[in-house]
Amino acid sequence: MLLWPWLMVKYSTGRLLNTREAAKFLRVSEASIRRWSDSGLLAARRVGRRRERRFHESDLQAFMQQPASSVAGAHTVNVGGGAVAVPGHLATLYSTDGGGMRLTVPFIADGLRLGQPCVLVATDAELKRYTDALGNRTDIGLGRALDSGLFTVVRFEGGTASEAIAEWERRLADTLAKGPAVIRIVGEMVSERSMFGSEEEMLRYEEAFEVMCRRYPVVVICQYDVRRFDGVALLRALKAHPDLFGFRMGTFLN
Spelled out in words, what is the top-level CATH class assigned to the domain 76-252? Predict the structure, then answer.
């Protein structure tokens, strides 16, 4: 099933798209388009004396629907008692600090016990809540996980959506170069909003991330504190996480 039908309006079926148009179609950076075509992930043809890239709309549609390479023995990840397929991109809404920890702390702890790389995007008060909660657990060894790089905390400095997507691609490729693994990611969106020039840019990043993450064996939970976002932003965030609608919504409302 095609998840982005509104993207088809501006492009005729037989038209070849250039790199800029393909990036707009997939809501990613032009650098991502070039990287995917150079690696053979995205079909492209070369035209003219300058051998410029051109992309068929049907190839872009197929690219959006193609699953990431599977990791043996790890086709699903448990989140709140439900099996989430890899790749997965979920959003949660919470209204208390404790509610914000209900799914994500066990999610990270389970990953560390299994030896799966875990990434947290958080700063300030949000980061402290995680380090306190994870540090109090006796079953994971948070210090060792940080020292070994199994657990990492990242942030992006004043970037754009395209810059953040390019940074994620670099990080994910570096992690997978060490060996196949499911990568668990938690993003505290109050923290992530501060890393962009505006809330609008952060939401564009979320929409682009939904496309990009399909190329990698990841399960991602994006956390929205409803005390800090308005209804319009939350609705747009939910639309950027279509995987969410395959589950009981109550699981992700905390």
Answer: alpha beta
pLDDT digits (tens, 9 = 90+) for 167-191: 998 899 899 888 888 999 999 999 9
Residue 245 backbone dihedrals phi, psi, to 5 degrees = -80, 0
pLDDT digits (tens, 9 = 90+) for 68-123: 544 434 588 999 989 999 999 999 999 999 999 999 999 999 999 999 999 999 99
The beta-carbon contacts of 13-22 under 8 Å, at least 24 apart in sequence, are: 13/57, 13/58, 15/57, 16/45, 16/47, 16/54, 16/55, 16/56, 17/54, 17/55, 17/56, 17/57, 17/60, 18/52, 18/53, 18/54, 18/55, 19/52, 19/53, 19/55, 21/55, 22/53, 22/55, 22/60
Q: Which fold has domain 5-65?
A: Multidrug-efflux Transporter Regulator; Chain: A; Domain 2 (1.10.1660)
